[in-house]
Amino acid sequence: MERPGAVTINGKPYTLLGPELRPGDPAPDFVCLDTKLQPVDLEATGRNVRIFSVVPSLDTPVCDMQTKRFDEAAAQLEGVDIYTISMDLPFAQKRWCDSFGVDHVKMLSDYRDASFGIAYGTLIKELRLECRAIFVLDRDNVIRYAEYVKEVTEHPNYEAVLSAVRALLQQARA
């Protein structure tokens, strides 16, 4: 499935491959590599509330800020696991985390098969990079928040993401 013009980079339109996921959809399976080159699939991400923060490359300013922002949030959100997914090589992800002391967010590299990008509709066809997107999953692997950032150079709606996470945590306590 192709979605022409689904995202832009500096105003230039690009095609996304895969479906556009929405709240209520079941989270698709995928296989990425962690920074130790171990495969990680949906089941391996556990049963906590999860944020999948998708970025084109950690070595760009917005991706850098987005990942650091979620790393800070992760330190304060008990029962939530946050994953950053990009096409960066696992070695580059580890180097970046070590350089900035990012140790709460878990890194997943989609470079090998683009499994996540195709399953979640975040793979930019023309560039073989991920677009900027956020998915919040509940404990039952149902997507409760989905945001595809139309202009890839802009930030996601952090407050909306964190509000969705807090609502899920509150429901779990009730």
User: Superfamily at the CATH H level?
Assistant: Glutaredoxin
Q: C-alpha Rg, in Å?
A: 15 Å
Please tally the helical runs, counting DSSP H or I stretches of 4 or more residues.
4
Mean pLDDT: 95
CATH top level label: Alpha Beta
Termini gap: 39 Å
Low-pLDDT runs = none
Number of domains: 1
Order of helices and strands: EEEEEHEHEHEEEEH
What CATH architecture would you give?
A: 3-Layer(aba) Sandwich
Q: How many E-type strands?
A: 11
Shape from CA axes? globular
Main pleated sheet:
5 strands, mixed
CATH topology annotation? Glutaredoxin
Strand content: 25-35%
Question: SS-based structural class?
Answer: alpha+beta
Helix content: 25-40%
As laid out across the biggest beta sheet, the strand order is 7-6-5-10-11
Description:
This protein has 174 residues and is α+β, with helices and mostly antiparallel strands. The protein has one domain: Glutaredoxin. It has four helices and eleven strands. The chain has helices at residues 61-76, 90-100, 115-120, 158-173; strands spanning 2-9, 12-17, 31-33, 39-41, 49-54, 80-86, 106-109, 123-124, 129-130, 133-137, 143-148. The chain has a five-stranded mixed β-sheet with strand order 7-6-5-10-11. Helix 2 (90-100) links the parallel strand 6 and strand 7 (106-109). The chain starts with a strand and ends with a helix. The mean pLDDT is 95.
